[in-house]
Structure formats: C-alpha cells, structure tokens
C-alpha cells in the first residue's frame, strides 16, 4: 500500500486529497478514486 497526494480540479476549484492504493494501481484508477473522494466530501 502507498499514500498518494492528488490535486483534483472540479467545478473550477482545486482540491487536495490523499488516496491509499496498492502499488499496482494504475495512475488513471488513482485519479478516479481521488475525484470520487472529493465529490463525496465536498460536493454533498
């Protein structure tokens, strides 16, 4: 497992979030996970 800090641009704002993923997880999947986290946390 590793922790990755990702900046997500959503609706014109930048959000910084951490994603915990396996080392084999692709960059695309990590970005998808980060975007989902931001949507759930900040956009209700």
TrEMBL record:
Lineage: superkingdom: Bacteria
Family matches, as InterPro entries: BA3454-like
Protein name: BA3454 family stress response protein
């Amino acid at each position: 497992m590793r922790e990755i800090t990702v900046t997500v641009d959503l609706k014109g704002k930048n959000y910084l979030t951490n994603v915990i993923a396996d080392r084999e997880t692709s960059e695309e999947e990590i970005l998808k996970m980060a975007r989902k986290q931001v949507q759930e946390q900040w956009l209700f």
